[in-house]
Amino acid sequence: MLKRVPLLGVALGLAGLMLLTNGGWIWAKAQLAQLLLQRSWSAMQQQGRELKPWPWADTHALARLRLPALGVDQLVLDGDSGRTLAFGPGLNSNSGLPGSSRLTLISGHRDTHFRFLSRIESGMEIEVETLQGRWRYRIEARQVINIDEGAVSVSDNRPGLLLVTCYPFDTLEPGGPLRLLVWAEPAEQALAHTNDPALSAPQPQGLDPVRI
Amino acid sequence: MPMVRARDMIVLGLMLLGSHAMAMVTPSLASEVRAGLLLQTDDGRRSAALLQHTTVSFDISGLLVRTRVEQAFVHQGDGWVEGIYSFPLPDDAAVDRLRMQIGERLIEGQIHAREEARQRYEQARVQGKRASIVEQQRPNIFTTSVANIAPGDRVVIAIEYQQRAGYSGGRFSLRFPLTLMPRYIPGTPLLPSEARIGDSDQRPAALIIDNRAFGWAAATDQVPDAALITPPVAASGEPLTHRVSLSARLKPGFALARVESRYHPVTVTSIAPGELAIELADESAIPDRDFALEWEAESGAQPVAALLEHEQDGAYYGSLMILPPAPESGATPLPRSLTLVLDISGSMHGASITQARQSLQQAIAALRPQDRFNIIVFNNRSYSLFERPLAASPVNRMQALTYIAGLEAEGGTEMAAAIKRALSQPEQPGYVEQLLFITDGAVGNEAALFNLIQARLGRQRLFTVGIGSAPNSYFMRKAAQLGRGTFTFIGSSGEVQQRMEALLGKLDAPQMTAIGIDSDEALELYPDRLPDLYPGEPLMVTFRARQRPGRLTLRGSTGERPWQQSLMLKTGAENPAISVLWGRERIAALMDDYRQAGDPSARDALRQQVVEAALAHHLVSRFTSLVAVDVTPSRPVGELLATQVEKNRLPHGTSQQQIFGLAKTATSAPLQIAMGLLLLLAAWLAHAQGRRLVSCCMAIRKECDHA
Lengths: 212, 707
Fold this sequence. Notes:
The complex is a heterodimer. By secondary structure, chain A is α+β, with helices and mostly antiparallel strands. The N and C termini of chain A lie far apart (59 Å). Helices cover 23% and strands 26% of the residues of chain A. In chain A, strands 1-2-3-4-7-8-6-5 form an eight-stranded mixed β-barrel. Chain B is of the alpha+beta class. Among the domains of chain B are: 304-328 and 512-578; 336-508, 3-Layer(aba) Sandwich (Rossmann fold), CATH 3.40.50. Chain B is 27% helix and 32% strand. In chain B, the strands form six sheets. Chain B has an eight-stranded mixed beta sheet with strand order 5-4-9-2-1-12-15-14. In chain B, β4 (94-102) and β5 (105-108) form a beta hairpin. In chain B, α5 (415-423) packs parallel to α6, α6 runs parallel beside α7 and α9 (577-596) packs antiparallel against α10 (600-616). Chain B is globular and about 110 Å long. Chain B starts with a helix and ends with a helix. In chain B, 46% of the residues are buried. The model of chain B is unreliable at 1-46 and 193-212 (pLDDT under 50). At the A-B interface, α1, α2, β4, β7 and β8 of A face α1 and α12 of B.
């Protein structure tokens, strides 16, 4: 009789702890996976072929995405299914890699890998490195769309980088219809594949301030 | 060592999280939608839908079905419009009639070669005459265009077709699709100059008509006519006025035990001896799923043979149905190697994947210890559970069931890779090799897939299971035919058990192979390659001869045992539809050859033969269309004509976001953490409150004791 009442508290407490660990795992996994991916990426660059980052992975690293101004350095995975996005930003499989004639569409979770999109400004430089070389982009525009009302064409033959994440950034509930699209234009021709990490970044020049 | 252990821990953690994430996050694929980088919505000035109502009436007499589909276009807005509507029909529909009704006037459609029909229509369109055309994009996708509809006009387009009812396992069936599952378009987009609409062969641009490219998908190297098979789809929640009513007259020709509509409530009334009227209970139903009617004879009254005939232009046309006697079962079936191939693309999301999972579970449960099996799933890529088929041991089965439970439907439909993977598994000598292909068939590159199946089948057999509210019946039937298996439809969870039982029974049973027909007359007989027969399935053939053959001999073998049956053809039931059916079968056979022909001149010759057969029987085909043109112009010179493309509804139980749209880019972590904190707070409160509650109770009890 006396013990029944505290049980409620214990049950609630346990449920709370479970949810906390679940949520924490999601974030921890996002970080851990990137570590493993960094290692497989170095190996991939040496061997010049695709390698699985961990034995049972159903995806692999495709490119390295860097935004020096915000200290972002992430590995982009093949595909943008939920299973993949848990480990890193993913390249939409209907879009193309940098260097192809097609749009490069990369999605990432707003609360893990693509959190940094809340801090971008136009003119910032993005570098994407693939096994084939390095490409530079400059952020030109951003826009919020409602996916219930329209969609993004990835069949356009327009090279460029489109980063996508959920919007707004500080909502708790996942699965909303709003997406933030960040459009980056190719900055120049592909850089030769060197190991020199330094970028000869030209200063952003007179761009319109971004609007949402 | 400690290093290794730490790594193992990380790995284990990732593993646990991996399976966890699969359950928590429902992802999606960004698929291509019309041009424009940041396409927001349609152009805003979109007028109300033209297509108001479709009325479908079936006239079923024995095995033959005559169907009339009336599409009512009502223009309530301003200005002159052209309406375009793409819609599905059964994949074996022989469309032979088009009638355009404007007010009291009726204009009969004429059959012409596709380009010529198109030119006539375009000419009338420019001249301001009312005109309509019905074109075939796939055997089960047609497009109606109606030009010069005036404000306030009501134009009814009536299309009629001939078809044979399905008959398998003692059950007759009729399936009518009411909407199109959006097709996945594989391949690399073509530049506009490379895109050719209408055909994948190298013909010059007679078929390229820009304003016909109404679809949401751009042409790709694998599906050059993508724009013609991807009509716009209504957004979820978007109100569409289009409704449908269906009715059927059923004269089965035998005593009925049962008649049933699978997915729509109907009323059934007896209107004459041996004749029933069936009607949808809802007079204006929402067209978002296939209509399926089934009827069965009383036991003992099942027909085992039927001959229908028609004489026309000095030729005899016959259609024969014969149900061979069931072979006595006794021999223990051979062990089999069963590969289950499952479509986990975005269009399978929702009810479909649930039904597919249940079907797989049932197939696995039916495996015997001596069997082998494997599972292959695909969306943008394909994955297999085992590298090759493994023994159906309890451990392997358990692993398979766990695998199935974790599957989510998301992403594209790269079916070719999955078919290649499934058909190029290591050979399993001593086993009957069977493939169960579970999909909705929502792809646009059917021809390439059929060629692939044909090239790689070897001694394997492929059975298709069409899942969902609007499966692509053309894919199901043709893939099974080329795979020398059978096709099954499962449209609801309630159907899984019965349908899978029937199918698994077929997998076990010895089929009748090497079937041939001999006759005292020379026969032009279709299908030209007779299928193998599974128990309960009749042989259905259509033939043309100089006169009625006196005798037909059917031969075949069951297992190693040869089998033969002779039939005296004395008299058949006269029906003028038989020549139409024969024409349709001939076109199907020619299109099979056309699909495989690589050489342009061979293709041209086949195309010509298709056109000839279609013109002779007044049939719509890939290369012929029906066109109806009014005599007098109605739109004054100088008035503009707008084009409006009617939308299809998304099939029942599917999710738009899983088919179109961007990836889901938020995790549930913030929500979970917030909820977790809230619960902890609640726990603390409960604890504190609990104490107070307890002391309160104690106090009350004390009071009571006192009392």
